[in-house]
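S.,

Sequence below, as promised.
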Amino acid sequence: MSKQPMQSSGSQKGVMLIEALVAILIFTLGIVAVMGLQANSMKQMSDAKYRTDASYLASQVLGMMWMDQGSNPWGSNLTNWQAPSYSGRLNWDPLVASTLPNGAATITVTGIPPVRLVTVQIRWKQPEDTVVHSYTAVANIQGTTGN
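The prediction came back faster than expected:
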């Protein structure tokens, strides 16, 4: 009985190199995935900032409108805010345009005095985005009673 010689380690040549290449491939895929998540996170953070800014701007103008009802108990100054040329909006509209990319706003006042329904809509469009985003705030503003 003759013994067969064990296979030499020569048939295992290159296996370690293949294992290293597979490990590098898996590591590279992981890095690319993390970079994609980071890019998506930055976009979501940017979107959230613009929504927060729009909310703040709408609240700001509603507060100014609340204070600028005039001496008339029916809040007659409220309808003036619909015109971009109204003195109360002269500083606010440029603030919207400078805070949000391509930012613009419209104000609509409806309702029968003394209660007015005020709708503030703010729109913006990010440079590489195809969608126009908007934020709408609606408030009932009741005229002062002159007390």
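The two ends are 120 Å apart (CA to CA).

Coffee later?
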